[in-house]
Design a protein that fits this description.
CATH class of one domain: Alpha Beta
Helix content: 40-55%
Bound molecules: iron/sulfur cluster
Largest sheet: 4 strands, parallel
Structural class: alpha/beta
Number of helices: 18
Distance between the termini: 82 Å
CATH topology of one domain: Rossmann fold
Length: 445
Amino acid sequence: MKEDFESLSASLHPSLRGGEVRIGARSSAESGIADFTDDYPRFTHEMKATHTILVPDMLPWHFDLLVHVIRREGYKVEVLHNEGREVIDEGLKHVHNDTCFPALCVIGQYLNALKSGKYDPEHTAVLITQSGGGCRASNYVPLIRKALKAEFPSVPVLSLNFSGLEKGNGLELNPGFILRLAYSIFYGDLIMSCFNQTKPYEVKEGASAEARVVCVEEIKRALDRGKYRKLKRYVLFILNTFAAVPVKSEKKIKVGIVGEIYVKYSPLGNSHLEDFLLQEGCEPVVPALMDFILYCIINNVNDAKLYGKNKKTAAVFKLVYRYAYGKQKKIIKWTKQHGRYEPMHDFERLRACADLVINQGVKMGEGWLIPAEMAALAETGTENIVCAQPFGCLPNHIAGKGAARVVRKLYPDANIVPVDYDPSATKVNQENRIKLMLATAREKL
Ligand code: SF4
C-alpha cells in the first residue's frame, strides 16, 4: 500500500506533491494552464546591463523624476504609454474580470507592449510597485508571472516595495537611492499641484506645460549633482516658475480626485480623468502621492497599537514617518508663505479628518485615507469630489462609496460622485456621471 502511494505521488506534478492530492491532475504543460506555483525567471544583477525594464503608466506626474532616479542607478527603464481597447482586451485574456481592474490594466499594458515587437522578450523585464498591505495588490506579482508564463516565459518580474516582499527579486535599493526616490515624490507632488492650479487659468495655451518641463529638468539636474536635498531652494524654484505663468482671474469649479491609488493617478485606469475635468473648465485637485506613502508608513505604527504587531518594527517606521512628515510640513509652510498656491494637505490633519469618519485600523486598500481626503478637500473649499474606484475593489468601495454618506453628513455641501472603472464601463457613462455632479456644482457657483 505504501509503495503504491509513493509511486502515485512520484507521478504527480511537483506542485501537487505534499499538498492537496488530486488523482488524475495534469501538469501545467499538459493542461495548457499556466501554474504560477512553478519556478519563474528572476532578475539578476547582470540583467541591469542587458534588460529593458517596462513600467506601467501609473504615476504620470512622478515618473518623470522617479524613472530618472532609477536610470541613474544603472537600470534601463521605459514607461509604457500604450492604451486603448486592445490593452484592456489583452488584460482580460489573462485576468478574470472579477480581479482588480488595476491588475488587468497593468498586465494588458505589459503584454500589448511585448507583442508590439518593439522589445526583445529575451532582454526585457517588467516592474510593478507594491505597498505590501493585506490587499490583493500583494498578489499582483504571481498574477503577472502567470500571464507572462503563458506568452513570454523568459520575462522576469521585478517588485519595487519597502515591505520585504519578493526578496532578492527587486531593484537593488540603498539609502541614497531611497532618498532620491522620496525627494522625487515630494517634488513631483508639488509640480502636480502647481500645474493643476495654473493650467485652467493660463493666458497662453501650453505655458503651464512649459513651466512643468522647466521644473522637471531643474530637479533632474539637482538629482544628478547631489543637490536635491536643498528642499527650500527647489520648492521655491517650482513655486516661482509656475507663478510666473500669466493667468486670467476667473472662478472655476474645483474638483477633487480621491480613490484607489492606481485609478486615481493613471490616465489608462481613469480614462484620462484630469484631462476631462480640464476640458470641462474645472480645476482638478489631486491629493499628494506622499500622503499615500505616509499612510502606508503610519499603518505599520498603528499595527503595533491596534493589532499587537512587532513594536521594534513600529519604532523604525515611526522614525521614518517623523522624517518624511517633517519634510512635508516644511513644504506646506513655504507654500503658504509664498502665497500664490493652495498647499497640499497636512498629513496629521488628514489623520484627524479620518478620525471623524472611520477608524484608522481600516487599512485594507486605501482604507481610511479615502474618507480622510474627502473630508480634507471639503473643509478646504473643494466640495466637488470624484471618488474613483475599480469595479470589484471591495476595500475601497467600503472606505470610499460606503463612507461618503458620513462625509456628506459632516460637510453638507460636499458633492461626491463615486465612479466605477472596469473593463466593461464606457468612458461616456463615466463622464456622464461626472457631468451630472458638475451640473450641481455649476448651479452653486
Ligand atoms: S485596493 Fe482594490 S484594486 Fe487595489 S488590490 Fe485591493 S482590491 Fe484590488
